Amino acid sequence: MTTTSPESIRTLTTAVVILNWNGVHLLEKFLPSVCKHSPQASIYVADNASTDNSIPFLEQHYPDIKIIRNTENGGYAKGYNDALQHIDADIYCLLNSDVEVTENWLVPIIERFQQNSKVAAIQPKILDYKRKNYFEYAGAAGGYIDQLGYPYCRGRIFDTIEEDTGQYDDAVEIFWASGACLFIRKHIFEDVGKLDEAFFAHQEEIDLCWRIKNHGYSIFFDGNSHVYHLGGATLSSMNPKKTYLNFRNSLFNLVKNCSGSKVISVLFIRMLLDGLAAIQFVVSGKIQHAVAILKAHFNFYLNFNTFRKKRKNFPIQKKYFTVSSVVWQYFILKRKYYNQL
Q: Which residues contact 242 (CB under 8 A, 6 or more apart)?
């Protein structure tokens, strides 16, 4: 059932906010599409204390774009938290600097927000900039997690990425929306506690979406809007720091948001599987990635009590998964595609 509100009477104001850190080459490449195809929105660049030519480039070539100058590079979470407090709009679009948008990409998103006030966040279809007929790793056609906190997407499970044949040209409720292109209502972003800056980068959008779900709101994927994401512009998949952040932050998500007493058993099984992943990295010669997992676990131990206390700040929903173990499905049963789960 569609839920209407006073917002449906007027057009919601939208701010497209691009976080930048030493990415002038990305601004040169991707800003033209954003400016061309976003007449319904105000465009901002939130700069994380860049030391390259980003600010002079924007001032010279895009004088109409509003620049917010953060005083430090606080990563994705702090960068957006610092910047968004200076922006007044009904809807924020958190857009990576390496995303090419398409004609009318904003129209179905804004319409869905206006039609249902319980929709807190929306993600468009995210395709690969380099292979435009394939989904992109970071979000694809909308995200989920299994019982152990492993994220996966419609269109991408672990490293298996599907070709886009129209199989996800729909609008459905999802569990998490990708931070590469995340639309969210301003008042809900603020009410649920913004982005958790302890994450720094990677999976902080999953934490945010989990809290949104715990507060009773819905998150949608809308395939009527699509963008192309380059991916890996800040940290590539080959960078051990990315491995460190993903493994650590996934554990943070579980201890912070997983319901009830189950969290201890879930964490125990998850950490055993992380150990197996580290062994696999060693066997494949990727020693630095194995070390990154060990460092992630040590940092998790150091911060366990901090995150345990954060559990008290939010209501908890018991069911957050539809698949018990995507690891079992993928590696043991060899189910590589979303429609096989």
A: 202, 235, 236
pLDDT, position 238: 78
Task: Return the residue matching tokens 């590539």.
Answer: 236
Considering only CA atoms, which of 135, 146, 200, 138 is closest in space to residue 169?
A: 135
Residue 29: exposure state from Cβ atoms within 10 A (0-12, 13-18, ≥19) = middle
Q: Which residues contact 9 (CB under 8 A, 6 or more apart)?
A: none
Alpha-carbon distance of 236 to 249, in angstroms, equals 17
User: Considering the chain, what is the average pLDDT of its residues?
Assistant: 94
| Residue 127 near residue 227 (C-beta atoms within 8 A) | yes
Task: Pull the structure tokens for residue 332.
Answer: 């043991």
At residue 163, what are phi and psi to the nearest 5 degrees?
A: -75, 145
Spatial separation of the C-alpha atoms in residues 227 and 95, rounded to whole Å: 10
Reported as a single tens digit per residue, the pLDDT across 193-233 is 999 999 998 999 999 999 999 999 999 999 999 999 999 75
Q: How far apart are CA 152 and CA 144, in angstroms?
A: 5
Q: Would you say residue 1 has pLDDT above 60?
A: no
Q: Is the pTM of this model over 0.85?
A: yes
Nearest to 190 by CA among 111, 99, 80, 56: 80
Give me the phi and psi of 47, to 5 degrees please: -95, 125
138-167 pLDDT, tens per residue?
999 999 999 999 999 999 999 999 999 999
Per-residue model confidence (pLDDT) at position 23 = 97
Instruction: Render 40-79 in DSSP notation, one character per residue.
Output: TEEEEEEEES--SSHHHHHHHH-TTSEEEEESS--HHHHH
Q: How many CA atoms lie within 13 A of 314 on its CB side?
A: 29
Q: How far is the C-alpha of 133 from the C-alpha of 251, rounded, in Å? A: 33
Amino acid 225 reads S
Answer whether 47's CB lies under 8 Å from 20's CB.
yes
Is residue 258 within 8 Å of residue 146, measured between CB atoms? no
Helix axis angle, 240-257 to 262-283, nearest 10°: 170
Give the integer Cα–Cα distance in Å for 267 and 275.
12
